[in-house]
Amino acid sequence: MAILNHLLLAVVVLVLPVMSYPFYPPTCYTKVLHMAQELTQWAADLKRDPETSYCMAHLPDLHLDVHNSCVMHKMSTYVSLVEGLRDRRCAYTREVRKLGVTLRQLYYIMSQKCHGDLAFTVFDCSLLER
User: Fold this and answer.
1) Which of 31, 75, 119, 123 lies 20 to 30 Å (CA to CA) from residue 15?
2) How are the residues of the chain apportioned to helix, strand and coil, as percentages rounded to the nearest 5?
């Protein structure tokens, strides 16, 4: 009887939390939306960070709205700006480079992987220039 109680307890403790977790694989749209929100916040944080604010001062603010059709042009321009940083201090700043690489990944995902899954509902480039 004690073994049965332990087994039941193990099922309750281990299996039920896994079964009750809302498991659903992310769609391409949710992945892109989440990455865009993270990158927008990350760029804002880097602008405020004393170690990277010098480098980020040369870059425009990054606001990504995956529903705006201008976002692809905005991302490619921003990646070019990050890769084109000439100041030695900025060219080797790990966080700024990582932002550029992650932004390039998002661009690739949006243009190649999720091309048919995304629908742009807005065409206003000025909205991305906040």
Assistant:
1) 31
2) 65, 0, 35
- Using alpha carbons, select from 99, 109, 126 the residue that is nearest to residue 45: 99
On whether the CB atoms of residues 100 and 82 are closer than 8 A, the answer is: yes
Instruction: Round to whole Å and give the CA distance between 33 and 45.
Output: 19
Q: Is the Cβ–Cβ distance between 114 and 32 less than 8 Å? A: yes
- Phi, psi (rounded to 5 degrees) for 122: -130, 140
Task: Report DSSP state, residue 126.
Answer: G
3-class SS of residue 122: strand
Structure token pair of residue 9: 């307890």
Contact predicate 65/71, CB 8 Å: yes
